[in-house]
Amino acid sequence: MRKFFLFVWEIVKVVSISLAIILPVRYYLIQPFYVKGASMEPNFHDHEYLIIDEISYRFKTPIRGQVIVFRYPKNPQEYFIKRLIALPGEEVQIKDGKVIIYNSEKPEGFTLNESYLPASLETLDNNGAKIEVGANEYFVLGDNRNASKDSRSFGPVDKTFITGKVLFRGWPLEKITIFNKDYWPTY
Question: In the annotation, is 130 catalytic?
Answer without folding.
Answer: no
